[in-house]
Amino acid sequence: MASIADEIEAYIRYLLQKSPDGAIVIQRTEIAERFDCVPSQISYVLMSRFTPDRGYVVEGRRGGGGNIRVMKLDAEQQELAALLSEIDEIDQARAFGLIVRVLESGLISEREAGVMQSALKRDVLQLGLPERDRVRARLLRAMLTAAFDSRGGLQP
């Protein structure tokens, strides 16, 4: 017999399969009501079974009822997301190298790459180390996620 977590996972995967762009927006409370469980059970499933190393990105959105966006990644995006999720700190040279790699793979435009590099320069961030490298890593993750999302979601 399948556990409630297995059933919730199957339902979310079903919704993703039906989605034309590989992304869905859900509300924890609605799914919790559907499965007669607490919303934290939905959070557990999302955090443990929809991870970058399994090919997903989960974004919590505040406001608007607490929506959660779940996106399926293609292989190249999955590799990049897994790499980014492991980076807590990144120096300017590594960040620029990663941006060039993403540019060369065709996932972002030259203009997007230039904007990202400009925003991540040490003279723009003006923070002491190691905080500057932590902020740079968070900004890089956010910018790449937004760049992919503007192309219709992180889709397969």
Describe the overall structure.
- With 156 residues, this protein is mainly α.
- Helices cover 59% and strands 10% of the residues.
- Strands 1-3-2 form a three-stranded antiparallel β-sheet.
- A hairpin with a 6-residue loop joins strand 2 (56-60) and strand 3.
- Helix 1 crosses helix 3 (39-49), helix 2 (28-35) crosses helix 3 and helix 5 packs antiparallel against helix 6 (110-119).
- The longest helix is centred in the last third of the chain and has 19 residues, at 131-149.
- It starts with a helix and ends in a 7-residue tail after the last helix.
Brief description of this entry?
By secondary structure, this protein is mainly α. The protein is built from 8 helices and 3 strands; from the N terminus they run αβααββααααα. Helix content is 59%, strand content 10%.
Topology:
Blueprint: H1 4-18, E1 23-27, H2 28-35, H3 39-49, E2 56-60, E3 67-72, H4 75-86, H5 92-104, H6 110-119, H7 122-125, H8 131-149
Antiparallel strand pairs: 1-3, 2-3
Helix pairs in contact: 1-3, 2-3, 5-6
Report how far apart the termini are.
31 Å
Question: How many domain regions?
Answer: 2
User: Which percent range describes the beta-strand content?
Assistant: 5-15%
- How does the helix and strand content classify structurally? mainly alpha
Instruction: Supply the CATH architecture of the largest domain.
Output: Orthogonal Bundle
- What level of helicity do the residues show? 55-70%
Q: Please work out how many helical segments DSSP would assign.
A: 8
Elements, N to C (H/E): HEHHEEHHHHH
Largest sheet: 3 strands, antiparallel
Shape descriptor: elongated
Total DSSP E strands: 3
On the 0-100 scale, what is the average pLDDT?
84
Radius of gyration: 17 Å
